[in-house]
Amino acid sequence: MDRSQVHTHQWLWRGFPIRYQQAGQGGVNVVLIHGFGAHSDHWRKNLPVLGQQYRVFALDLLGFGFSAKPSPGPVLTADQVPYGFETWGQQLLDFCQEVVAGPAFLVGNSIGCVVALQMAVQAPDLAMGLALLNCSLRQFHERKQATLAWHERLGVPLIQTLLTHPLISRSFFSLVARPATLRSILRQAYVNPEAVTDELINLLLAPAQEPGAAAVFTAFLRYSQGPLAEDLLPQVQAPVLIIWGESDPWEPIGLGRHLGEFAAVEAFISLPGVGHCPQDEVPDQVNALLQQWIEGRQALAVSVLG
Fold first, then answer.
1. φ, ψ (nearest 5 deg) of residue 22
2. Which one-letter DSSP state was computed for residue 157?
């Protein structure tokens, strides 16, 4: 895996500096979208491999990684941002238009899947296909909370209310952004403890030191509105592949299987003994599945056109 072929760039989106990485110069376009609390380095095991065949991009969503972290706010302005899927979907849409300069296969992990779905609904002509890896089920969403027992409904709003207090939110973030705490959290999400390396800990913690990181982190934890995957999937026109680590404790596969019933979904592939981030825990499996799927879609397109 030759990472020397991966190059880092900066793109200005509505005045905000956005970091992205790119590998490969030929083939179809592929855009990788990270999950909550992560950034484009979480695709470090995928970029150089997929870049051997495709023109591959991975971007840091606004508020994460080494992209700008303006203050959370109700409307998008020069100094504040409503952190949610409509904002990130628009960012991804503009990225495909301005940087990728054409349609792309979108590959997301966790909340990155919902970002990809949002963009595919907004701009179907730019989405050649979507691969969703352990899609976020958004179990803290207000509509899902409404289905819980009364005593279960109290917990999430209480925590979200507490996180509106600046001192509490900063204290909470400083606790999470410690190597020992993050390692413990990741060892829940990853089945293989050897995949939780010092490199992974360091790359995820590095952006946490930037101004604004704590505010963005806690703002998203308080975000219980916006679209669900099941709202967007019926509107998606592009083919969808779902890949799911069977041992994901955060997004249980039993709660996610219903996503495979939507018409756009071509296949639902479960990975035994794999957790929430299959692209990082079992990259060889995920890279092979993505290559096989993309090649299959291209072959189908050729046969239809032919």
1. -140, 145
2. H
| Contact in structure between 266 and 241 (CB atoms under 8 Å) | yes
Model-level pTM? 0.94
CA distances from 217 to 47, 97, 104, 210 (A): 25, 28, 28, 12
Pair 289, 268: CB distance under 8 Å: no
Is 3-305 in CATH node 3.40.50.1820?
A: yes
Residue 227, SS3?
Answer: coil
Residue 269 pairs in a beta bridge with 243
Could you report the per-residue pLDDT of 164-193, keeping only the tens digit for each?
667 777 787 788 889 999 999 999 999 999
The 10s digit of each residue's pLDDT in 51-85 is 999 999 999 999 999 999 999 999 989 889 999 99
Q: 174: closest CA among 199, 198, 202, 208?
A: 208
Angle between helices 166-176 and 179-189 (to 10 degrees): 70
* Residue indicated by tokens 């639902």: 268
**pLDDT value at 158 more than 90:** no
List 72's β-bridge partners, or say none.
81
pLDDT at position 295 is: 95
